[in-house]
Structures
1.
Amino acid sequence: MAEPGTLAKRQSDALDRYNHAVANFERILGQRRAQILDRPLPNLPGQALYLARNGMMSAYKDLTDALPSRVGRPNKFAIPPAYFDAEREPLLDEYTSLFDLMDAPPANAQKSDTPFKDVVDLAIAIARARGLDETNAEAAGRISLGMFFAETNGKQNVGNARSNKYKGSFQTGPSEDQNGRGKWAAIKKSIAALDPALSLRDDREEARVGNLDHRFNHWTAVRDGLMNAHAELFPQIAAIAKTLPNPIDQIKLFELIQIIPAPTKSALRSGNLLSYRVSDPTIMGYLRNNSIFAFGQADRARTSATFREILDAMWLFNDKFERALARFDEIKAGQKG
C-alpha cells in the first residue's frame, strides 16, 4: 500500500483513512452475511452497508487526490478508477449478492415472464395516449426501461433494504402508487382505443392482483410508477432530446424526477435546463443519498450544482443505463422480453 519514499502527513492520513474504511466495509459485510444465515436482520439492514461502501469509495477518492499515482486499472463495474480500487472488486460482488438477498421479493409477489418488455410496452402506450408520435413514444419506452434499471437493477418486485416505504419494480411509496392508479384510470379508455391487447393484459393483471399491494405485481407497479410522475413529462421528450441528445443523459434526467422531482421540473420550466442551479442543502442531501456528489471530501463539500454538473456526477448509473439500452435494442429486435 505504501508509496516509495516518505509520505507527507496528508498522504499518510489519507492512506490510514482508506485502510480504516476498507476494514469497516469488510466488517459490515461480515455482519450482514452472518445475520442473513443465523439471526434476524436489523431494521433497514442495507443502510449501514450502503454507507460503508460509500465510505470506502470516498476515502479512496481522497487518497487518489492526495496520491494520484494510486489511481489504478479500470474495474468491471465501470466506476472511475479514481474512486475505486479494482483490487476490491470481490467486496462489491459480495455487496451486490447481499443486497439481492435482502431485497428479495415477498413470497406472494406476482412476477412477469416479460418484465423488460412490459416496461417498454406500457411506456409506449402511455406516451401514445399523451399524444406522442411513434419516434418519441419509443424514446419514452427506452427512457422508462433505463429507470427500471436505475431503481432495481432490472429486478422485478423487489423490496428495499434501505427503506420501509419504497417497494416494487419502480420503488414507489403507497401514496405514489395510489396517485398513479388514479391517473391510469383517467386514461384507460384512451389506452384501450390505441392498444386493445395491452388493455386486455391490464384487465387480467388487475384481476390477478386483487387485494395484493399493487407494487408487488410487476405490471401494475410499473404502470402506476410511470403514471405517478413521469407520464406528464413524456410530451416534453422531443424538446428534452434537443437539449440532451445523449440517450443516457435523457434517462438521467427522468431518474432525477424520482430523486428531486420539484427542482427537476423547475429546471425544465426555466428555459435553461443545463445551467439551472440547485443550492438547497436538503436537495443536495437527497442527491448524496443517491450516490451523486457522495464520494470524497471535495464533492461532499459542494453547496450547489448546475443540472449539467448533476448529470455528469451520476456516473454510478452509467453501467446500468448501458445495460438497459442494450436490453431495449434486444426488445426492439424481437429477441427478448
2.
Amino acid sequence: MPTRAQTNARAAELRARFEAAGAQPVEPPILQPAGTLLDLYGEDIRARAYVTSDALRGEQMLRPDFTVPVVQMHMQGGAEPARYTYAGEVFRRQEEDEDRASEYVQVGYEVFERADPAASDAEVFALIAAGFGDLPVRAMTGDIGVLMAVVDGLATTEMRKAALRRHIWRPRRFRALLEMYAGRTPPPPQRDALLAGQVSSDAPLVGLRSQREIDARIAVLRADREAPALADREVALIEALLDIAAPLSEAIGMLEDLAVDLPAIEAAVGRVKARAQALEARDVDVSTLMFEASYGRSSMEYYDGFVFGFRAEARPDLPPLATGGRYDALTRRLGGGAEIPAVGGVMRPGLILEVEGC
C-alpha cells in the first residue's frame, strides 16, 4: 500500500499537470455547511458523510467531495471562463465494507465555460486520461441527459415525471416506479389503505407533518391513482435505451435509431454526437471507447449529462481510479439565479499508486 507521503507526492504531480493546462489551484475548507448538502441530496447524504455540529455555524460535514464547494465558490463571483484544480482529502463513511477507505485523496479538474460544452467535456476526459500515462485503464462513458430527456418527453403527469427524474440515480427505485406507472405492479399496500380511508385523519399526529400537509399528500396520491398508465411502447423504448452498451461510435447509431421513435431525445443525442467529434479531435478512439446509457446512475447523483470513469484493467476489484461528468444543473441550484455549463473530474492518486505496485 502506498504511504501518505507517496500519495501526496503523486497528488502534487497530478495537480501540477492540471495547473499547466490553465487551471487555478483552490483549497475549499474541509468543514462544509451541512445544510447545502442536505438541500441537494436530502437525508441520504448522512449515510455517507461524517456529520458534526458547531455552536456558531450549526451542523457541519467533513467534505464528502470537492465539486459542491468549488461550484459555490465560482458562482459567488468566479471569472468566465474558469478552470480550477485542487488536491486534498475527502471523507466517506463506510457501513458495509470495512476494506473501503473512509478517508482518501482526490485531485480534480473543473471547467466552467459557455462557448463549447462538447469541447469542454473532451478536454476534461482527455486530460484525466493522459494523467494515467502508460497505466492500463479501461474507460467507460455515458450520458444521464439522454435518460432525463426521455422522462421529460413521456406522455404522463408532471408529478410522475418529477418522481422518475428524482430517482434516475436510484435504478431499482426508478424501475419500480416505471413498472407501477405502467400498471404492471400494484401500488404499495399502505397507499391503498390511506386512499381507502383506513387511516383516519382524526388519528393523533405523530412526527413533523401537519394535518394540512397530510391532506395535500393524500390529494396528490388520489390524482396519481386516476392518471392513465404509461403506454407499453414508451416503457419498451426506455428499456431499449437502458440496454445500450457499445463502443461510442456504434452507440450513436443506436441512439439515433431510438430518436426516430423518441423525438424527445434528439437534442440530447446531438450532444452525444458532438462530444464524440470533440473527443476524436483530441485523439480519443471512439471506436473502442465504451458507452453505456445507464452508466453513472448509482454513484454520480449531481451529474446531469456526460459521465465517465476509469478502472484499472488488472484490478477490477478496486473502485474507479477516476470519475467525472457534467453538472450544469448544480450551478443553477447553487447560483442564486445564475448558471453556467460546467464539467469536471477527479482522480485518486492512492489507488493509482496501488495499481502501480507501490
3.
Amino acid sequence: MSERTTEVLVIGSGIAGLAAAVGAAREGTEVTLATKATRPEGASSWWAQGGIAIARDDPAQFKQDILTASSGTADPEAVEVLVENANEAVRDILVETLDVKFDTNGDRYDFGREAAHDEARILHVDASTGKHIHVPFLNYAADHDHIEVLEDTAALELIHHEGRVHGAILETDGEFEPYYAGATVLATGGIGDLYPRTTNPNGSTGDGIAMAALAGADTEDMEYVQFHPTVCVADDDPFLVSEAVRGEGAVLRNGTAERFMPNIHDDAELAPRDVVARAVKHERDHTGEVVLDVSPLDFEEEFPDLATKCEERDIEWDDGIPVAPAEHFLCGGIAVDEWGRTTLDRLYAVGECSRTGVHGANRLASTSLLEGLVWGLRAGEDAAGSDVEIIEAPELLERDPNLPPNFAREKFIRLRRVMDEYVGLERDPQELNRALSVLRRLKGEVDAYVRTRTSRSLYELRNASITALMIARAASENGKSVGTHNLITTESRIEGD
C-alpha cells in the first residue's frame, strides 16, 4: 500500500465534519476531509428539516429546556458549552461566512418553536433547513485553500498504537491506503441502517463508533436511541414530517379521529420526543393508525417543501398525514470532552457519532445541527498543529475477496429485525438478552469474513454489527427507564399496560 499524510484528517461531511475542517483550516492547518457521500444527500445534515436552535437573549431558559427534555440526565457543563457558544457560532459560520438566508418576518428572523422548547428560538429555511446549510458549507470547504475533499471515500480502520491514533486506512474505488494524520476527527453520523425505518440516509452504519471502540476509545449512553414520532409512512418511501409542523398547530389523531396527546402530557403534541413517539406507537397498535392533522394551519403556504413531498406521493394532507415513529438520532456515542477529544490521544469525535453529554437520555429538537457546529469548530481548532508520526498500519487482507451471494444483505435484514423487535422504542429485559445472543452470533459470523476480505460493504456490516451489539449491551445493563430507554416486561405487554 502507498501512504499519504495530512495534518488533520476529518472523516465525514455533515455539519460537524465541515465545521471541524473549517475550524482547523482557519488555524492555517492542512486538512483532508474524507466522506462516503458522493452527493449532499449522503450526509444526515442535508436531511435536517426543523432548523437550528440558538440561545437568543435567554441562554438560561435554553439550558433549562435542554436539561428538562433529557429528564435531567444531560451534563450541565456540556449544555453550558453549547448554549454559551450557540449565538456566536451561528452568526460567524452560518450567517456571515455562508450567508444562509434564514426565513424572516419583515426585517426580523422568523423563529420557530418545536417540542419541549419554552419559546420560539429556532432559525429555519422552510422545512428544509439542512440542505440550505449543508450545500453552501460543502462548497465553501471544497473551495478552501487548506481543505482537500475526498468524495466516495470510506474509512475502514483507525491507525493506532499505545493509546494514540495516527490516522486511518481509507478506501476509494476498491483501493485502500493509509492516511497518516497529526489528528483525526470522526464525524461519521448516525446509526439509521441498524433499523428498518429511519430518517437517516443510507450508509448510516455507525462506522466511527465501531472504529473508535475497536481502537480502545470509551463510549457512553449507547442505549439512548431517539425515535422521531412523525415520519410519513404512506408508502415505501417514508419521509420526516418536521416537528415544526406541530409547533405551528398541527395535532395528532388516532384511528378513531381522537386527539390523544392532551391526555398524555401537559404539552400535548409539543411534549418531549420520547413521550410523543411512544404515544404514537401505542395508538397505532390499538387503533390501527395515527395521522398528523394539519388543518389548523395553512400547510401548503407554511411548509411548501413538505406539501410537495405529499403531492409526489398522492397524499391528501386534508385527510391527515399518516405517521409512525422511526429511528432518528443516537444520543450517546464516543465519549468526548468539551473540545471533542476522545479518550485516545489525537482522536476527536463530533456530531452524532460523539457523546458530548448535551443530550443525555433524550435530545431536545433542533439541537443536533447546533451541537455539530459548536463541537466541530472547537475540535478543529484544538486539533490544529498536531505533528504527523508514521507507524506501521494494520494489514487488511484480501485472501478471498468474494463474498457468498447476498451475504451482506441477508445479515443486515437479520440485524434490523433484531434491533426493531428487541431494541426499539420499548424494551423487555428478557428480550434484550435474546437480542444480545443473536447479535453476538451475527458479529462472529461477520468477523470470520473480515479476517480474510476487505471491502467497504463488509466493513460497514462489521461496524453495524459492533454498534448494534454495543447498543443492546448498554440497554441490558441499564435497569432504569428514562428518556428514550423505556423498559417494559413481557407481562405488562400482555396485560396492555
4.
Amino acid sequence: MPLDLTENEIQRYSRNILLPEVGGTGQVRLREASVLIVGAGGLGSPVACYLAAAGVGRIGIVDHDRVELSNLQRQILHATDRVGMSKVASARHMLKALNPDIKIETHETRLTPANASDILAGYDLVCDGCDNFETRYLVNEICVAQRKTLISAAVLRFDGQLSTFHPHKGGPCYECLFPRVDGTPNAASCGEAGIFGAVTGVLGTLQATEALKELLKLGESLAGRLLLWNALETRFTTITIDRDPACPVCGGQERYESPRD
C-alpha cells in the first residue's frame, strides 16, 4: 500500500502515525476504509466523531429521525440550533466541520428488509447503535449474509454492553447471544427508562475503538466476548459468548479466515 499521505494528512493524523502499530501504512488503510453507522444518536455520535477524527475515509450514517431537544443531553453530534433538522444532516454538518477531508454519506431512512442489503453492501464494517431489537436483528442478518464484521453496542440507564460479531471469521453472531423466542423481544427505550448521558459516550467511544482495531487489524478482537459496564459501580465485566451451531442466522456459515486475516 503506497504511503501517499499529504502534508495536511501527516499533520492531522500525526499522533496516529507516531504509533508503531499504526504508522503511515495504517493511516492509509483507514483512509481507504468505509464504515456504516446505524443510528445517529447517543452511541452513533461518539462513534462517528472518533472515526471521522481518526481519518476513516468514508462514513455512512443511517437514521430517519430529526433532532429533538431531549437528544442533546447525550447526542453530541447535534446542537441546539439544529433542533428540527434531520439527524443525518446534522451529523454531516458536525463531521465535515471536524474533518473536511473525509466523505460522509447520509441515508435518511429507516432500515427495512427492502433496503438494508443494498445500504450495508457499500461498506467494509458496520457499527450498530440503534435503539430497537427489530433493526438489530436485521442488521445482524445482513452482516452475516454479506460476511461483514458487526460491532454492536447498547445502553440503558447506567449500563452498557459491547461486542464484535464476525462468524465468517469464527465466533457467534448477535442472534447467538440474544436468540429470538416467540418473536422479537421487547426492551424499554431510553425515553421510557432514562439514560445517563455520559454512559453513551463511554460505550460509543469503546465501539469506535473496536472498529478502528478491526480496520487496522490490531490487538485482540471482542468477537466471542461480551463487555459489560456498570457506571454506578465503575465496573467492567467480560463474559464469553459461545456460537450456537443451531443458530438460524449463522449456524450454517463456515469460517474461512482467521480473526486477524
